[in-house]
Amino acid sequence: MNHSHGTKRSYCMNEIYVVGHRNPDTDSIVAAMSYAALRNALGDRDYVAAYLGHVSDETQRLLDRFGLQPPQLIQNVRTQVADLDYDTPPALNATVTMDRAWHIMREQRISAIPVVNEDGTLYGTLSAGDIATYSMNTIGEPRVEALPLFNLLSVIEGRVLNDTGDLVDSVTGDVVIALPQSSENLLWNGREHIVLCGDQPDMIRRALETNVCCLILCQTEVDQTLLADAQNTCIISSPYDASRVARLIYQAIPISRPCHTDDIVCFHLSDYIDDVREVVLKSRYRCYPVLDQNEKVVGTLSRYHLLRPRRKRVVLVDHNERAQAVQGLDQAEILEIIDHHRLADIQTAQPIRVRNEPVGSTNTIITGMYQEHGVMPSPAMAGLMAAAILSDTVMFKSPTCTKRDVAMAERMARIANVSLNELGKLLFDGSFDGKSAEELLHSDFKEFHIAEQNLGVGQITCLDSEDMLQRREEFLEAMRHDQTEHHYDMVILMLTDVLMEGTQLLYVGSDDVIRNAFSAEPKDNSLFLPKVMSRKKQIIPMLTALWG
Question: Are β-strands 453-462 and 490-497 bridged in parallel, bridged antiparallel, or unpaired?
């Protein structure tokens, strides 16, 4: 998930996102913050406040006023790799021996492991089949190239016996077991040989005389005088017999050589399961490395992990309509809904807690929940909640406003030690200068699907609607663009004037719809509606009655 605003968080499968509607207003964002804070205060530390779209200027002014950061920005709640119970086998460094890799696979009963660079990034993948294939190839070609000495000593439990050996970092050559025979019939005759000897002084002497690269003494001691004469040979002792050492040498090979490094299919924690399934179905691998945002390996993914993915968990606040909800909601698990709007079309697979009350603000409901649980909000959070109630009730002038809204706003203002008048000026006296008509239109914009009609309704609450009407043609042009792009049957913009206690209505669409819905005669795509302050209670119900 990308974060253009707000605090970044790491992936966590236990997070519960508290999120409002698209194009969120102040009530929506503050509701997510206040409810997440309440749940976390009660010990449920998995709740994360989130928002969609963008933070409006109004909301940002309030956040700045109380010194708080906006919540986490999310784009959707589709299931991602991070939500899966993927495996977390050891990620082995590319220099590790095949012997160690094989023992880990056998102990943990896994068929493949990721191979990483020193910084944890992906180098390749190693399967049991890769190890078996490499081991079988050594039968036909008993040779090792640039075998790190540390690897060899580790696998055969060897010990370097001479000073020359201490200067050697790797060995290269054909692997030969010395057998009693004449010097004319030796199985080696040059330096690029690794000779394995038991208690065979003649063979040891001949190996040193021919300057073999490495001499491994198996279960035997060596004459110290021979060590002094060995100027070009690394001499190693091992407690194992020659036959076992011959097998173990090839297990000392670094896993960087047999592992698969080309055309590796891997996934990131942020990848969506729908996309992963499509790739997996077209590939032949049994497991796939999983990488984090820093390209470091964190686990492996197999086909069976995709059968029952763990869904993201969400709490919806300030809405209960699918068209306004976060994308990918059908892939998420809804735990709870807290809202003050009409019940709409969201369905759940299981029973959930729903708190829906006829008040003017979702934060009015949440302040009541603070009271019920005996939790006092912080002064900053209380100030935000008071402002959110003022915003959604338009300074208590909206017909949606109730006595509870007023009482809760006053209580939160007292806790925050702030006046409601100050908050009201901060909310509705903000400058709209420098904002495009499109930006203002979408600052508080909601979609509705009524009967077979698609509707978009924006609302700008201000102290001087006449000033806003100077930009009438700009607004209408932006609304026509939205209508075309999103296939709306109608787009409405409410210029709600707090002082006049009414709304200048701009619209694109059918004149008859406006005329019949509000029993008034529109002119030039506009209409003044006195005492109309609420979108949900005075605009949408009239259109619903007309269309529904």
Answer: parallel
Beta-carbon-side half-sphere exposure of residue 147 (alpha carbons within 13 Å): 30
Contact at 8 Å (CB) between 336 and 316?
yes
Radius of gyration for the chain, computed over Cα atoms and rounded to the nearest angstrom? 37
- Token pair 């001479």 is found at 162
Domain ranges of the chain: 16-79+312-425, 158-239, 437-547
For the stretch 277-293, pLDDT in tens is: 999 988 888 889 999 99
CATH code linked to domain 16-79+312-425: 3.90.1640.10
Stretch 180-206: mean pLDDT, rounded? 76
Partners of residue 113 on adjacent β-strands: 126
d(Cα 364, Cα 41) in Å, to the nearest integer? 18
In this structure, the dihedral spanned by the alpha carbons of residues 466, 472, 478 and 483, taken in order and rounded to 10 degrees, is 100
The per-residue pLDDT for range 334-366, each reduced to its tens digit, is: 999 999 998 988 989 899 999 999 999 999 999
Q: Which amino acid is at 336?
A: E
Q: What are the structure tokens assigned to 99, written together? A: 């012997």
Those residues whose C-beta lies under 8 Å from the C-beta of residue 285, and which sit 6 or more positions away, are 125, 265
CATH numeric code, 437-547:
3.10.310.20
Q: Measured over all CA atoms, what is the biggest interatomic distance in the chain, rounded to whole angstroms? A: 119
- For domain 158-239, which CATH number applies: 2.130.10.10, 3.40.50.1240, 3.90.1150.10, 3.40.1390.20? 3.40.1390.20
d(CA 173, CA 154): 19
